[in-house]
Every structure is written in structure tokens, then in C-alpha cells.
Amino acid sequence: MKSNAHILAPRLDYRPVEERIKDFDEACLGFSPETARLEASRCVQCPSPQPCLLACPLHNDIPAAMREIARGDFLKAAAIYRQTSNFPDLCGRLCPDELLCESSCPVGKIDHSIRLGRLEAFVADHQREAEGLPIPEIPPPTGWHVAVVGSGPAGLTVAEELAKLGHAVTIFEASHIWLCLRLQKGAGWRPASTGT
Ligand code: SF4
């Protein structure tokens, strides 16, 4: 392993319990730009095939993203995640990293595992704040209209990919609480449950 394996994991702060039991906002306060760079610099850039990349169901190029975060180029890191992931902001928070990429990473045998999910969420949030949510180019309509049942990550992903091919998409969701409306502007789909 390279010498940066000895860098100690920076601390992640959480909102006080008495505050966070009153709402559904995120408990973890996440990284600052400085602590994100420090955390990513703990990556030792394993030789190929890198365990984290193999363990990730999307095969996100995590080593390349760690390199860019450590350099402070958060936008480039976000672009790396978006090559293989439709929702790095969601996946960075919801994916069971402790069972996948993080548990495969050898740095976790020395100190706390690199918080790969939190870093992914950090750069996706940074990208959204710096330049807005990237809205993909939508080609002219194909005339096909596809129904997608369920607005979980799989449903939203297939809806986005279909919309990027020019198909009209309607998502059917049993819950009245919408997880994400990120396609609404570009893709021309509408929430079927509201009839809007
Ligand atoms: S397994 Fe861990 S140390 Fe190795 S490249 Fe991936 S993040 Fe870096």
C-alpha cells in the first residue's frame, strides 16, 4: 500500500439527537471540502481490478473519483459518478456501502473504512449547488409512450434512460409522496397519480 494509508479518518459530525428526532432531515452533517479531500486521500489507488469498483453494482469508477476529490476537483468527480449512475446523490446515501464498496476496501483493515458513499453524495450535492442538476439532452419524440410502475431508484433510472432515447414516460406510483421529479422539465413525463 502507498504511504497515505496511514492518514487517519476525519471525523463525521451528526446533528444532536434531541434536534433530529423532531424532523426527517439528514442526521449526518457530511463532509466539508477540506475533510472530503482528506478522506479521499486515504485511497491507496489499488491496482486493477480494484476491489471497490468490482463490489459496486454500477461499477462506478471509484478510484478515479477518489483521485479527483483528493485533488479538490469535485465537479470532475461528480461527472465520473454520473457516467455510470443516474442518482449519485441518492445512491451515495441509500446504497448499503458497508456491505459493498466500503467493505471491499483494504483501507478498512487499518482504520475506519473510507466513507465512499458519503463522498459520492458530497460531490453530487456540490455539483447541484455549483451548476444545478444536470438535465440530459432529450432527442425529438419517438412517438412511443412507456409506463413505468414504481418510482424507486430502478423505476426512476429506467424512466430517465427511456426519456433520453426520446420516449415519453409516465411513472405510476402508489404513494402520493414523490421521491424525485428530476425528469419533469426535460422528459415530458407527468405523475400519473395526480393527473397533472
Ligand atoms: S478499494 Fe479502497 S483503497 Fe482501493 S482503490 Fe478502491 S477506494 Fe481506493
Description:
This protein is mainly alpha-helical and 196 residues long. 41% of the residues lie in helices and 5% in strands. It has helices at residues 17-20, 33-40, 51-55, 62-71, 74-84, 88-94, 101-104, 116-131, 153-164, 184-187, and strands at 145-149, 168-172. A two-stranded parallel sheet has the order 1-2. The radius of gyration is 19 Å and the shape is globular. The model is unreliable at 180-196 (pLDDT under 50). Iron/sulfur cluster (SF4) binds next to helix 3 and helix 4.
Average pLDDT over all residues: 87
Question: Tally the helices: what do you get?
Answer: 10
Strand order of the largest sheet: 1-2
Based on Cα principal axes, name the global outline. Answer: globular
Please give the largest β-sheet.
Answer: 2 strands, parallel
Strand content: 5-15%
Please count the beta strands (DSSP E, at least 2 residues each): 2
Q: Give the domain tally.
A: 2
CATH-wise, what's the superfamily of the largest domain?
Alpha-helical ferredoxin
Structural class: mainly alpha
Bound molecule types: iron/sulfur cluster
Straight-line N-to-C gap: 56 Å
Secondary-structure arrangement, i.e. CATH architecture of the largest domain: Orthogonal Bundle
Question: What string, H for helix and E for strand, traces the elements in order?
Answer: HHHHHHHHEHEH
Helix amount, in percent?
40-55%
User: What would CATH call the class of the largest domain?
Assistant: Mainly Alpha
Q: Give start-end ranges of low-pLDDT stretches.
A: 180-196
| Quaternary organization | single chain
